[in-house]
Every structure is written in structure tokens, then in C-alpha cells.
Amino acid sequence: MKIAVAGATGVVGHHVVEVARARGHQVVELARSLGVDLTTGAGLAERLDGVDAVVDVTSVPTLKREEAEAFFGAVTRTLLAGEERAGVGHHVALSIVGVDDVPSGYYRGKQLQERLVREAPVGWSILRATQFHEFAEQALGFMRLGPLSLVPGMLSQPIAAVEVAEALVDLAEAGPSGRVPDLAGPDRLSMVTLARRVSKARGLGRRVVGLPVPGAAGRAMRGGSLCPDTDGPRGRITFEEWLAS
After folding, report:
1. d(Cα 203, Cα 200) in Å, to the nearest integer?
2. What does the alpha-carbon distance between residue 14 and residue 16 come to, in Å, rounded to a whole number?
């Protein structure tokens, strides 16, 4: 197959590229740093020539609803329009467990992305996954006050990014599958605990303090809305195994 990866240089994207190539697929990398602007479509048309499936793992660093909806709306519309013109038969989108239950700005952007994918004429698959193991280290830098790292108080069931990538390539190979069961890691853990483990293992010397996120979003995050509430596929790699590697 010929698979295009939107967001190919990101946390999950580079794993998708590696997994797809290891399975013998031809991979087209789509990223701004590689000459493709997915918000405007500049450089996209020629990259989609002969592509069988597009895997979208793009992201944007914002918590604001307006910015998230603007980004995911622009990227998704651009990709879908380009795919329709190029005759691409399958669009695979990565989303997040809990987007319907946690009223945050970023998740509103992901909700828009999912709706656009479902309504498009291109065949589609949507995989919702939990936070990656890598998120715990990122959380240490969200809010820093000297030696302190304020980490959102949330319950998570994290999964290794490489296992998410494997599942996305599986979907690309399988063809349009609609909304598939949510993917999560093997254990349900506190993000504050995970961040403390990362700081200790990496020798970062950060003092991690839990920060209760206010409002309905915070209550949902602390209550487990970011974890799957039904049976589904589970990752094999524990957080401790990922940290040790």
C-alpha cells in the first residue's frame, strides 16, 4: 500500500511512519517541516498521487476552543478535499477517549474533526486512544514555577505511542471500518503519579504538585472520563516498561 501520514514528525506520527515502512508499505510524510501546509493545502496535491490511505495524527498545542476548532477544521477539510480529488479511498483519524464527556476547548476541536470525517464522502475509520505514556513527561513542562511542576489532576489509562501507531496501520490495512473500539493502556493511573515517576527516572529533580483543574472538565478528568468505559483492545507495554526503555 501507499500510505500518507499527516503529522508524520510528531509523537505518534514518526512511529506510524516506522511501522508502515517495516511492514513493506510505501510511506508519504506530510508535515509543515517537509513542505506541506495542511491548513492551506500548499504542497499537498502532488503528495496524494496514488495514495491508498491517509492516516491523520496531526495535533496543535492549545487548550482554546477557537484555536483547536480552527486547526482541526482546516486540516481535516483540506485533507478530505485533497483525498476526494486524488481518489484516496480511506481516511484514518486518531482521536481521544473522552472527547464527548470532557468539556474542554481542545476536545471540542477533536469533536469537530470526527464530525467532518464521518460526513465526508471518503471512506473512513476513527480510533480513539487514551493519553500516551509520553504525555507524563510533557505534563512536567505545562506549568513550571522554579523547581515546581504543576500537573493536572487526572485519571488516565496511558498507552505507548508505538502501540497506537501499530493500531493505526492495522486500520489502514483493513480498509474503512468506521468508529472502532477505544484503545487504552493496561493500567489506570494518576497523571501526577506518572509525572513524579518520570522526574525521578530521568533525574529531572522536579517537585510535582497536583493541580485540580476547575469546573466540569476538571471533575470529569479526575473522575475517569479520559479512560474507556467499555471493553476494548489494550496495550501490552506498561508505563514502567516504557519508562525503563
Report:
1. 5
2. 5
Q: 3-class SS at 205?
A: coil
Which pLDDT tens digit goes with each residue over 189-229? 999 999 999 999 999 999 999 988 889 988 999 999 999 98
Domain range 2-244, CATH class: alpha beta
Task: Name the residue with cell 500500500.
Answer: 1
DSSP state, residue 121: S
Q: Is 231 helix (H, G, I), strand (E, B) or coil?
A: coil
- C-alpha grid cell for residue 71? 486547526
Beta strands in 138-245 (DSSP E): 144-145, 148-152, 155-156, 178-179, 189-190, 207-211
Q: What is the CA radius of gyration of the chain?
A: 18
E strand or H helix at 108: helix 105-119
Cβ proximity of 2 and 26 under 8 Å = yes
pLDDT in tens, 22-39: 999 999 999 999 999 999
Domain boundaries, the chain: 2-244
